[in-house]
Amino acid sequence: MAARVSPGIWLALPAATWMTIGFVVPVVFLIVSGLFGTGLFGGEAASIATFVEVLGDPYYLGVIGNTLLYSTSVTLICLAIAYPFALALIRLPGWAQAVGMIVTLLPLTASAIVKTFGITILFRTTGVVNKTLQILGIIDAPIRMLFTVPGLYLGTANMMLPFMILPIYAALRRIDPALGDAAATLRSGPFDRFLRVTLPLSLPGVFAGFAMVFALVASAYVMPTLLIGERHKVLSKAIAHAFLVTNDLAKGTVLALVLLALCSGMVLFAARVSRTGSAR
């Protein structure tokens, strides 16, 4: 008797087919081109020598370092803001939670270009941020925020916040409130309850948000291009330059594989740590 196929498989088939055509197949082509030197769409193919050249070049090592620092810094900024916000959100009444979720999700309806241009308006020397700081007496004269590394980090964090808030909020919502009450009956203080109950149980959401934001920031192109320009090199801009400007397909392929490895490594690491924490 033939084994019965689960209905869930048929439900997942359209999404799996779409992901295979739109993601898996291009990635396989990219890896084959990088490792076996077959080339993509003509042009010079990548090879092991290209990997050695790129990974041994101080310039590209600096680009990789900038990307790691950029992604990690923005992710930590988002985490520092998103966790308290999500923690406060779950303690609000139902209508207030709904308003909070609308405020969180509303920025996702705008494109990255529109949001980035909005950030450039805020960060101008005559923008809202500088004017507010001057009114409060924090600064005497406008400070330069656009085309600086701190401005890039803060502007990107502003746009990535929803991707950190949502998984943390979902993880906190799954925590049974009775666990906190039980800890309180054992004379555990609020801070101790947070460290021993809330934080460990919310770590899957923290790691999911960390991996998501890190991967999105590492692969972002529009935000670093508009907020800081060509002065600050990251992998996404180096890849675009290799493919679109110098037409160096081999180097572009290697850089794309490096970016893919960084993002995949972070996602797998976060999944592993989250699974280990859940098992405990």
Q: Tell me the fraction of residues in β-strands, as a range.
A: under 5%
Query: Element order, helices and strands?
Result: HHHHHHHHHHHH
For the report, how would you describe the main beta sheet? Answer: none
Report the principal-axis shape.
globular
What structural category arises from helix and sheet content? mainly alpha
Radius of gyration: 23 Å
Helix content: over 70%
Uncertain runs: none
Count helical runs. 12
Mean pLDDT, to the nearest integer, reads: 86
First-to-last CA distance: 40 Å
Record field, number of beta strands:
0
Notes on the protein architecture:
It is a single chain. With 280 residues, the chain is mainly alpha-helical. It has twelve helices and no strands. The radius of gyration is 23 Å and the shape is globular. The model has no long low-confidence stretch (mean pLDDT 86).
